[in-house]
Design brief:
The complex is a heterodimer of chains A (about 110) and B (about 110). Chain A contains no helices and 10 strands. Chain A is mainly beta and about 110 residues long. In chain A, the strands form 2 sheets. In chain A, strands 1, 3, 4, 8, 9 and 10 form a 6-stranded mixed beta sheet that branches. In chain A, strands 2-7-6-5 form a 4-stranded antiparallel beta sheet, with no helix packed on it. In chain A, strand 3 (about 30-40) and strand 4 form a beta hairpin. In chain B, a hairpin with a 7-residue loop joins strand 9 and strand 10 (about 100-105). Chain B is built from no helices and 11 strands. The chains are: A mainly beta (about 110), B mainly beta (about 110).
Chain lengths: ~110, ~110
């Protein structure tokens, strides 16, 4: 049969704008969350992480917000640059001694110069 | 510090063959995880090894197996290859004390 690819959400922004990428996670027991950036032909690159005992964490040009009440995660990228164009994945770890990440389907970010 | 390395980077096999992929984690990282990435299913967890023991396993058939050596290097094997096994296979490593996983560039496998 014909295979159907995942329909990635897409976000297109102008260079210099701020970007917000959203992610809904599934497991209320998840206690650790990571955002990855994947460029074409490369493996996922770690951006920022957050534990469930926090609701906000900031890095260089990036901020992750965690809302456990509605199981929602967001990644904010300030002053988006063309080099930020990539697929962004959120991932959750279900806690305990697991080292097993469950990934969302990703969001394609395109930055227009 | 060198990142996660994977060999080979590209591989072409035919149905029914088997394949072995290799992963060298970041120095000092003892946990190694494997993931399969396809356009249809996205990123899916295969298994995770720590101190030569498989600690977690995803929902893949027994044709997919792995092992870890005493130096933390890991291999995964896929036997009796099927067309649907064509994918990017990613290895990630992490320290024993954290859950942050760092990925290698992947091995792109094409099954004809």
């Amino acid at each position: 049969g014909e295979s159907v690819g995942l329909h990635l959400p897409t976000l297109s922004v102008q260079e210099g704008d701020n970007s917000i990428i959203n992610c809904a996670y599934s497991n209320s027991a998840s206690d650790y969350f990571i955002w990855y950036k994947q460029e074409s032909g490369k493996g996922p690159q770690f951006i920022i992480d957050i534990r469930s005992n926090m609701d906000k964490r900031q890095g260089q040009r990036v901020t992750v917000l965690l809302n456990k009440t509605v199981k929602h995660l967001s990644l904010q990228i300030a002053a988006t640059q063309p080099g930020d164009s990539a697929v962004y994945f959120c991932a959750e770890d279900s806690g305990g001694s697991n080292y097993k990440l469950t990934f969302g389907k990703g969001t394609l970010l395109t930055v227009n110069p | 510090k060198a990142g996660v390395t994977q060999t080979p980077r590209y591989l072409i096999k035919t149905r029914g063959q088997q394949v072995t992929l290799s992963c060298s984690p970041i120095s000092g990282h003892r946990s190694v995880s494997w993931y399969q990435q396809t356009p249809g299913q996205g990123l899916q967890f295969l298994f995770e090894y720590f101190s030569e023991t498989q600690r977690n396993k995803g929902n893949f058939p027994g044709r997919f197996s792995g092992r870890q050596f005493s130096n933390s290097r890991s291999e995964m094997n896929v036997s009796t290859l099927e067309l649907g096994d064509s994918a990017l296979y990613l290895c990630a490593s992490s320290l024993a004390s954290t859950k942050t996983q760092y990925f290698g560039p992947g091995t792109r496998l094409l099954v004809l």
